[in-house]
Amino acid sequence: ITKLRSHGLSPRRKFLLLGPPGTGKTMTASALAGELGLPLLVARMDGIITKYMGETSAKLRMIFEALKHNRGVYLFDEFDSIGTTRASGNDVGEMRRILNSFLQFMDEDNSESLILSATNHPGILDHALFRRFDDVIEYALPDKESRIRLLQNRLASYKKIEINWEKLADAASNISHADITRACDDAIKDMIIHDRNGITQKDILQMIRERKILDKKHYNQNKQGLTSPK
């Protein structure tokens, strides 16, 4: 950091993490904190926003003051809560002020802390936000080969009966790494609770289907929340 700043340059410290839930955004923040030996501090944006005028901006100011004096990895989670485009039909004056405050704090920040912002909805972010970050990192759902490896690795320690990994990977399409892991864990727990000798393909397929149903329900709820009332 000192070498770069002696040449009038700054290290990359501000990262925007984009992608579906369960694809590794929070894990990235945790891994960075661990590698750098720094504390991870998570600010959930939907918890910072209040109905009182000026209070949210004041809370943001406190966070940016803290990261000046306490070096760490600061993760602004659910970032779309304040980062929605200023042209949005859902926009209100106070949210514009909050967004403008955040942009100003980002411009003024010259601390040694890492700032990460994570969102599941990159399409609704204000374009001015992207310029404030040194890097934009995109996360995607796992491809078929990754799904096969994930299933095999998670179930490696357990006896498996008649497993067709490719068929399981096809069934697990369009869900995240985290959901595949949870489906495997659910199948393992079910095997243990019912004193079975091993995990069958049917067991895992059932858990994957349940995860997909939960994902669809959650997606529909989020979609309704992002749709402006008519």
Topology:
Layout (H helix, E strand, L loop, with lengths): L1 H5 L7 E5 L6 H12 L3 E5 H4 L6 H15 L3 E5 L2 H4 L9 H16 L5 E6 L7 H4 L4 E4 L5 H11 L5 E2 L3 H7 L5 H17 L5 E2 H26 L4
Parallel strand pairs: 1-4, 1-5, 2-3, 3-4, 6-7
Describe this structure in words.
- There is one protein chain.
- The chain has 230 residues and is an alpha/beta fold.
- The protein has two domains: 137 residues, Rossmann fold (3-Layer(aba) Sandwich), CATH 3.40.50; 80 residues, Helicase, Ruva Protein, domain 3 (Orthogonal Bundle).
- The protein contains eleven helices and seven strands.
- The strands form two sheets. The chain has a five-stranded parallel β-sheet with strand order 2-3-4-1-5. The protein has a two-stranded parallel ribbon with strand order 6-7.
- α4 runs parallel beside α6, α8 runs parallel beside α10 and α10 crosses α11.
- The C terminus is likely disordered.
Name some characteristics of this structure.
13% strand; disordered C terminus; Helicase, Ruva Protein, domain 3; single chain; 11 helices; Rossmann fold; 2 domains; two-stranded parallel sheet; five-stranded parallel sheet; 230 residues; alpha/beta
| CATH homology group of the largest domain | P-loop containing nucleotide triphosphate hydrolases
Largest sheet, described in full?
A: 5 strands, parallel
| CATH fold-level label of the largest domain | Rossmann fold
Structural class computed from helices and strand pairing = alpha/beta
CATH class wording of the largest domain: Alpha Beta
Estimate what percentage of residues fall within beta strands.
5-15%
Helix segment tally: 11
Order of helices and strands: HEHEHHEHHEHEHEHHEH
Radius of gyration: 21 Å
